[in-house]
């Protein structure tokens, strides 16, 4: 009896262990396998998984990390106002233009030059140029002495600074990302086998990236030019003298217009009499009749009453 009971307990224990293994096996069989990543999205040009064209675009659009201790990019703009004797405006302006051209286009470039002789004794001028900071610093250091030697003065001086650091760094980071993206697209187009639609999509993306690279390159070049060559503008005008005979001087204008103004006044008086004379004649006739005929008759009537 004891042997029978021991055999039964052993059989039950074995069955329990087998059931547990079968349940675990069933659970493992019932759990679905992990989904496979599609081949088109899992492939990238460098062999790493993650995204295909969409993944490349996301990598391109990811914001660049800020660079600590990056170089500062500052664009400066200078403006000067000079007041000179009329005979010194053109020579001094030509001297400034000659100094810029003598430095060479790599150092200084004249962008605008205007000279206007408004009258015999009044001249104005405007000069705009781009130059490297060292040349502008040297120019500003000597402009006061040149103006004073010409008998003039510096009437205004203004300096403006624009911080282009963030714009240049962002544009440079975007350009680097687009160049990397272009290389991956070219590798993808050269080494990847697929359907015609996939190749056309890659070519369209490659054309878009190429256009973006050209635009960013142009913008970055213009921004760096603003930093490397500062802008400066100079305005020239003639000194005004109280005893000058020019038309722009108030006293000279008043003396010059003396006879004209007097003739205008006489013309106004003549016009007034010409317009008022008929009325004056009519009023005179009415007064004559009143005094000679009507008023004596009125007085006689009052006397009789």
Spell out the key features of this protein:
elongated, alpha+beta, 9 helices, single chain, 63% helix, 305 residues, disordered N terminus
Task: Please characterize this protein's 3D structure.
With 305 residues, this protein is α+β, with helices and mostly antiparallel strands. It is 63% helix and 17% strand. It has 9 helices and 5 strands. The protein has a 5-stranded mixed beta sheet. β2 (108-119) and β3 form a beta hairpin. The longest helix has 47 residues, at 258-304.
Question: Topology, pairings included?
Answer:
Elements (H helix, E strand, L loop, with lengths): L1 H29 L8 H4 L9 H10 L12 E11 L1 H18 L4 E12 L2 E10 L1 H17 L3 E11 L1 H27 L4 H33 L1 E9 L11 H7 L1 H47 L1
Main β-sheet, spatial strand arrangement? 2-3-5-1-4
Coarse structural class? alpha+beta
Specify the helix fraction band: 55-70%
Looking at the structure, what is the overall shape? elongated
Alpha carbon gyration radius:
48 Å
The profile of the biggest β sheet is: 5 strands, mixed
Topology pattern, helix = H, strand = E: HHHEHEEHEHHEHH
Q: Mean pLDDT across all residues, rounded?
A: 76
Per DSSP, the total helix count is 9
Number of strands: 5
Strand content: 15-25%
Low-confidence stretches: 1-51, 242-247
Tell me the span between the first and last alpha carbons: 181 Å
């Amino acid at each position: 009896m004891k042997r029978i009971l021991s055999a039964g307990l052993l059989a039950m224990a074995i069955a329990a262990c087998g059931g547990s293994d079968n349940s675990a096996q069933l659970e493992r069989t019932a759990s679905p396998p992990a989904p496979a990543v599609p081949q088109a999205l899992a492939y990238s040009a460098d062999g790493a998984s993650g995204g295909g064209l969409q993944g490349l675009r996301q990598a391109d659009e990811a914001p660049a990390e800020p660079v600590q201790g990056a170089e500062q990019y500052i664009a400066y703009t200078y403006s000067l106002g000079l007041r000179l004797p009329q005979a010194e405006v053109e020579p001094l302006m030509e001297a400034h233009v000659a100094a810029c051209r003598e430095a060479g286009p790599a150092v200084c470039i004249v962008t605008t030059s205007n000279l206007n002789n408004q009258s015999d004794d009044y001249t104005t001028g405007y000069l705009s140029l781009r130059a490297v900071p060292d040349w502008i610093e040297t120019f500003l250091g000597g402009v006061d002495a040149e103006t004073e030697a010409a008998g003039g003065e510096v009437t205004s001086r203004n300096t403006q600074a624009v911080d282009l650091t963030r714009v240049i760094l962002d544009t440079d980071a975007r350009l680097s990302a687009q160049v990397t993206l272009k290389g991956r697209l070219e590798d993808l187009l050269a080494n990847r086998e697929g359907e015609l639609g996939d190749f056309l999509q890659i070519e369209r993306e490659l054309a878009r990236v190429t256009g973006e690279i050209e635009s960013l390159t142009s913008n970055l070049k213009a921004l760096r030019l603003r930093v490397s060559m500062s802008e400066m503008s100079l305005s020239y005008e003639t000194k005004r003298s109280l005893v000058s005979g020019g038309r722009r001087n108030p006293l000279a204008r008043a003396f010059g217009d003396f006879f004209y103004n007097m003739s205008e006044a006489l013309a106004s008086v003549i016009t007034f009499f010409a317009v008022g004379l008929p009325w004056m004649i009519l009023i005179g006739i009415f007064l004559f009749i009143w005094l000679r005929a009507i008023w004596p008759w009125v007085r006689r009537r009052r006397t009789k009453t």
